Amino acid sequence: MPGSTVTDEVELIGTGRGGGGGSSGDSGNSGGGGDDWKGPSGSARVPQRAYVTGMTIALAGILMFFMALVSAYIVRKDMPNSAWVPFNVPRILWLNTLILIASSFTLARSRSRFLANDSAGFRHWWGVTTILGIFFLAGQVIAWRQLAAAGVFLSTNPASSFFYVFTAAHGLHLLGGVLALLFIAFRPTHRLTKGTATEVVSMYWHFMDGLWVFLFLLLLLGR
Fold first, then answer.
1. How far apart are alpha carbons 20 and 188 in whole angstroms?
2. For residue 38, is it within any domain?
3. Is residue 19 part of a domain?
4. 20 to 30 A from 25, CA-CA: which of 35, 54, 98, 170?
5. Has residue 95 been placed in a domain?
6. CATH for 81
């Protein structure tokens, strides 16, 4: 019937399945419906929120991996005749921890400048975060060199083995975060809008920050 046809067309337009839809530019809406990536034909490919969901699942997997290591650490430490020999962690780890915590604040600042459409402020604080991440990784290498100079190596005893495993595993994951920061700073995004990209990387970075604080306290207090 004619009236039914008109009603159907109105419903199609109202639900966004007909007519022209909204644009997918780099708005502050990081992952909403208007943040979907559009292909050349204008059809939606992957919803931007799917990347956020994917990152959440990935972080859950990383957490399970480190919790397995923590469980092994606790069990191995409490075993009788475990040959566990505690050692003093390098003092530079305190500085490294402060650097990483500071990087979370600078990243949050960068994200807020992005949402305020302040491109210069966003790039500045994003760059500061990247530099702090590099400083942290360099500090971890220095800590390893200090331990080696003191005769504490990966195979020295179970305590030193877990220290190297924890710090190396976390360092590799944080290196991935640094590379992501550099990629967003110097390369335009395609499938992800910049709003979603900054949100996903921020999730990852803050998670790595909190994870390191936990691992540092474990290594410091659980000796």
1. 25
2. no
3. no
4. 54
5. yes
6. 1.20.120.80
**Residue 7 in domain:** no
Beta-bridged to residue 38, according to DSSP, are 44
Give the CA dihedral 152, 155, 161, 164, nearest 10 degrees: 60
pTM of the full structure: 0.79
pLDDT confidence band for 31 (50 / 70 / 90): very low
For 131-142, letters b (16+ CB in 10 Å) and e give ebbbbbbebbee
Q: Over the range 43-72, which residues count as b (16 or more CB within 10 Å of their CB) and which as e?
A: eeeebbbebbeebeeebeebeeebeebbee
Domain, as residue range, for 79: 48-221
Distance CA 88, CA 110 (A): 36
Q: Which are the contacts of 181, defined by CB distance < 8 A and separation ≥ 6?
A: 126, 129, 130, 133, 201, 205
The angle, 0 to 180 degrees and rounded to 10, between the axes of the packed helices 92-115 and 119-149 is 170
φ, ψ of residue 44 in degrees (nearest 5): -70, 135
On average, the pLDDT of the chain sits at 83
Q: What confidence tens digit (pLDDT) does each residue in 93-149 have?
A: 999 999 999 999 999 999 999 999 999 999 999 999 999 999 999 999 999 999 999
The total of structural domains in the chain comes to: 1
